[in-house]
Amino acid sequence: MSAMIAIREIVCYGYHGVLPEEQALGQEFRVNLELRLDRFAPERDLLSETVDYREVVAIVLQIMEGRPRLLLETLADGIASALLRLPGIGSVKVSVCKPHPPIPAVKGGVAVELSRTKEV
Questions:
Q1: HEC per residue, the chain
Q2: How many structural domains compose the chain?
Q3: What is the model's pTM?
Q4: Which residues carry out catalysis?
Q5: Please, which pLDDT band fits residue 47 given cuts at 50, 70 and 90?
Q6: For the domain that residue 81 is a member of, what is the CATH number?
Q7: What pLDDT score does 46 carry?
Q8: pLDDT exceeds cutoff 70 at 1
Q9: Angle between helices 72-84 and 53-64 (to 10 degrees)
Q10: 21, 57, 81, 112: least buried by Cβ within 10 Å?
C-alpha cells in the first residue's frame, strides 16, 4: 500500500528573482508539495510510522527564506533534494509559485513544478 501526503500553500517571503528589485524588496512565494511515502503502516497511529509535516514545512521555509536564488527552478530543485533526504519519502512533486511576478501582463502568477524520485 502506498500513500501520498499533500501540503498546500506554504506561504513564505524571499528575495529570489533575476531582477534587482526582486532581490532588494523581496516578495511572497507559495510552495505546494506532494510526498509519496516509501513506507506506510495504516494499522498504526504513530508519528514515527510516517513523515512529520512540521519538519517538511521547516525545511521548505529554511530554503525559501534563505540564500537568494535567481530561478524558481533552482528553488524547487533544492526543496526536492532536501526532502528526499528525509526517511520515508520515496518521491516528491514540488511547485514553487511567484503569485505576483513583476510582469505587467501576468495576473495569475508564475510557477515551476518538478517531480523527483529518491535514487536507490
A1: CCEEEEEEEEEEEECCCCCHHHHHHCEEEEEEEEEEECCCCCCCCCHHHCCCHHHHHHHHHHHHCCCCCCCHHHHHHHHHHHHHCCCCEEEEEEEEEECCCCCCCCCCCEEEEEEEECCC
A2: 1
A3: 0.93
A4: 98
A5: confident
A6: 3.30.1130.10
A7: 81
A8: no
A9: 150
A10: 21
**Rounded to 5 degrees, what angle do the CA atoms 107, 14, 116 make?**
85
Say how many residues make up the chain.
Answer: 120
Which residue's C-alpha cell is 510552495? 31
Give pLDDT tens digits for 110-120.
999 999 999 87
CA distances, 59 to each of 81, 84, 109 (Å)? 11, 11, 23
Spatial separation of the C-alpha atoms in residues 72 and 57, rounded to whole Å: 18
